[in-house]
């Protein structure tokens, strides 16, 4: 038999063994156990909506889901580690850091929303909005203090990359989570513009974010994921499906670049678990966008296997499988006895 | 299963003359003699090797004998079991299938309402109900190795079809259609037969009994689940309804006369016993 470099590789390197052969629920695209997350860790979360699943799982698992800005979940508390709402683009997260540490002050400070007022950078966190511009400001100060805690005190920070498309203020580049006018404020084409970030933009932003956070928290470990939730709409001229592929591809490449360029930055492949051809769309709901509980459960199984300090006893697992195998053999032997009884 | 295989094979190879002999048509000596005569002159005999058919096997000399797999698979239904009476006969409730958790609870003298509280994700995890997939695949693969059919294409297609079993040993119509395609290839059909949608031409003759894929098990396997049993036309929409009907079917059978390898190995006593203690209940020995 000829020798070549692929012969010594493990099963995870081969599509036939790692993707085609296992049951869809068994696919595990994570290679290795980069680090363990224990009950002593403070795990912070930020990013797009998909990271909320991980937040809930962390809470259920008895881990320390770090929420320094705590309160009623109906008012957006606890959804992420601080009440920042969805940070869809990495640029938003970079600007959040700079605002939290007084390095940058956006021009836009407050939006009108009906009779109330909202924060342009998290316009949906307060149901019904705030009563006055001052109330927005007071809450923002408290919020940014909590954000600093998240950056400084998390021992693990989970960052889910969601989108490359977004809207920003032409005057200073301030990124909004939603287009002005949709959840407060007014859209003004002379002030607001659409942007679709390139892979160079996102990579630079991601490395910049990691470096900023490490300035205030040198030992923090990063766990990067890409949201598998497709774009709800694109403002580019492309079809929403190709726009989604572009967006997720850029984010995935940026995550790989950051993992390669910085230590203790790990990419966790929840995107691949949900979108893999082996899953055959079974992890998407009828809208082909929302991720199902079964998909989330699969992601969390893989996450537990590689990051949590609760390894399965291999002997116990083997005993269970042996017991099952014997029983299945016996079941096969009674097939037709049972059929006779049923037809009788 | 015989009906589904015959329909599937007819759809895959319409030129064949196929006759099926289900077990209930092999009960009398006359039926067996008639079947043996037809098998003896057949070009091929497709059979599931069973001890009770050795007389027919000895009496016939068909053109070719093709052994079929039994197609049992417990991965979707880890709680479904058989049980036996003290005299060795199959213990029958609403049907021959029993819930292992339910049967354990009944033997302990629990009422259906209390027993229903044992159908929790935590208990199913402790009973390793998410680990029946791999050994089921291994067993199915061995079942095929012992048969005359090839496993690989059949399995690659089967596992993409979602929940392919109604119970631990009742395949769905699409699964039987796939088995029929494997048989067709063995009989000489070319590989394009795999792409003919014969499942559309195959009635689901085994759906009178549908054991549910429990929600937690379904989530673990990436398929939909629900506590909804269908037993000979009756549908039970909750665990409690199902258990109440089961308890009625069990009637006044002596609890100590019913055994099952699954629930007699100590694991259920341990896991369910602890759960009852946690509920503040005493456990009968």
Task: Give a quick summary of the entry.
The complex is a heterodimer of chains A (344) and B (285). By secondary structure, chain A is an alpha/beta fold.
What does this structure look like?
The complex is a heterodimer of chains A (344) and B (285). The longest helix of chain A has 22 residues, at 240-261. Chain A has 344 residues and is an alpha/beta fold. Helices cover 40% and strands 11% of the residues of chain A. In chain A, the strands form 3 sheets. A 4-stranded parallel β-sheet of chain A has the order 1-4-8-9, sandwiched between helices. A 3-stranded antiparallel β-sheet of chain A has the order 6-5-7. Chain B is mostly helical and 285 residues long. Chain B is built from 12 helices and 11 strands. The mean pLDDT of chain B is 92. The chains are: A alpha/beta (344), B mainly alpha (285). The interface between A and B is large, with 41 and 51 residues.
Oligomer: heterodimer
The number of domains of chain B: 2
Classify the fold: give the CATH topology of the largest domain in chain A: Rossmann fold
Decide which structural class fits the backbone of chain A: alpha/beta
How far is the N terminus from the C terminus of chain B? 41 Å
Percentage beta strand of chain A: 5-15%
Task: Specify Rg of chain B, calculated over alpha carbons.
Answer: 21 Å
In sequence order, what are the helices and strands of chain A, one letter per element?
HEHHEEHEEEEHEHEHHHH
> What is the CA–CA distance across the termini of chain A?
58 Å
Determine Rg of chain A (CA atoms, Å): 23 Å
Number of helices of chain B: 12
Shape of chain A: globular
Amount of helix of chain B: 25-40%
Alpha-beta content class of chain B: mainly alpha
Can you summarize the main beta sheet of chain A?
4 strands, parallel
Number of domains of chain A: 2
Main sheet strand line-up of chain B: 8-9-10
Beta-sheet strand percentage of chain B?
Answer: 5-15%
Helix percentage of chain A: 40-55%
Q: Uncertain spans of chain A, ≥5 residues at pLDDT below 50?
A: 335-344
CATH architecture of the largest domain in chain B: 3-Layer(aba) Sandwich
């Amino acid at each position: 038999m000829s020798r070549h470099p692929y012969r010594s590789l493990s099963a995870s390197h081969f599509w036939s063994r790692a993707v085609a052969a296992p049951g869809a629920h068994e696919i595990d695209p994570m290679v290795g156990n980069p680090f363990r997350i224990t009950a002593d860790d403070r795990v912070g979360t930020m990013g797009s909506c998909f990271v909320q699943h991980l937040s809930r799982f962390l809470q259920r698992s008895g881990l320390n889901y770090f929420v320094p800005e705590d309160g009623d979940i109906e008012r957006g508390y606890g959804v992420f580690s601080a009440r920042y709402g969805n940070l869809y683009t990495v640029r938003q997260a970079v600007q959040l850091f700079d605002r939290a540490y007084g390095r940058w002050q956006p021009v836009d400070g407050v939006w009108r929303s009906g009779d109330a007022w909202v924060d342009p950078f998290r316009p949906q966190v307060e149901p019904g909005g705030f009563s006055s511009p001052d109330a927005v400001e007071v809450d923002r100060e408290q919020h940014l203090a909590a954000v600093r805690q998240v950056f400084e005190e998390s021992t693990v920070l989970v960052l889910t990359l969601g989108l490359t498309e977004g809207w920003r203020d032409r005057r200073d580049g301030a990124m909004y989570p939603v287009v002005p006018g949709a959840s407060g404020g007014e859209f003004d084409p002379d002030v607001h513009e659409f942007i679709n970030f390139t892979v160079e933009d996102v990579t630079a932003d991601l490395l910049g974010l990691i470096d900023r956070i490490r300035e205030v928290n040198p030992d923090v470990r990063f766990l990067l994921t890409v949201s598998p939730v497709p774009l709800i709409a694109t403002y580019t001229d492309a079809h929403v499906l190709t726009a989604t592929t572009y967006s997720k591809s850029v984010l995935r490449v940026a995550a790989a670049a950051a993992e390669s360029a910085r230590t203790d930055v790990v990419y966790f492949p929840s995107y691949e678990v949900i979108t893999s051809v082996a899953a055959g769309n079974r992890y998407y709901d009828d809208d082909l966008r929302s991720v199902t509980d079964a998909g989330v459960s699969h992601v969390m199984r893989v996450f537990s296997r590689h990051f949590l300090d609760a390894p399965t006893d291999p002997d116990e697992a083997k005993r269970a499988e042996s017991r099952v195998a014997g029983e299945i053999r016996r079941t096969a032997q009674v097939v037709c006895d049972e059929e006779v009884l049923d037809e009788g | 299963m015989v009906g589904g295989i015959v329909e599937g094979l007819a759809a895959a190879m319409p030129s064949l003359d196929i006759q099926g002999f289900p077990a209930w048509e092999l009960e009398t000596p006359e039926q067996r003699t008639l079947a043996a005569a037809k098998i003896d002159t057949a070009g091929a005999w497709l059979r599931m090797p069973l001890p009770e058919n050795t007389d027919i096997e000895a009496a016939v000399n068909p053109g070719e004998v093709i052994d079929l797999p039994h197609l049992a698979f417990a991965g979707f239904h880890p709680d479904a079991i058989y049980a036996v009476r003290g005299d060795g006969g199959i213990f029958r409730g609403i049907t021959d299938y029993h819930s292992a958790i339910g049967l354990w609870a009944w033997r302990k003298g629990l009422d259906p309402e209390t027993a229903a509280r044992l159908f929790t994700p935590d208990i199913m995890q402790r009973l390793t109900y998410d680990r029946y997939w791999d050994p089921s695949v291994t067993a199915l693969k061995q079942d095929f190795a012992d048969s005359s059919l090839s496993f690989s294409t059949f399995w690659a297609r089967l596992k993409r079809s979602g929940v392919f079993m109604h119970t631990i040993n009742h395949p769905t119509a699409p699964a039987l259609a796939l088995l029929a395609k494997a048989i067709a290839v063995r009989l000489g059909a070319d590989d394009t037969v795999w792409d003919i949608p014969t499942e559309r031409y195959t009635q689901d003759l085994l759906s009178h009994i549908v054991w549910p894929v429990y929600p937690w098990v379904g989530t673990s396997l990436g398929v939909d689940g629900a506590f909804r049993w269908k037993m000979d036309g009756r549908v039970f929409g909750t665990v409690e309804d199902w258990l109440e009907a089961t308890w009625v079917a069990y009637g006044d059978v002596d609890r100590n006369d019913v055994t099952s390898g699954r629930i007699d190995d100590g694991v259920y006593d341990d896991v369910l016993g602890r759960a009852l203690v946690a509920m503040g209940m005493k456990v009968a020995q």
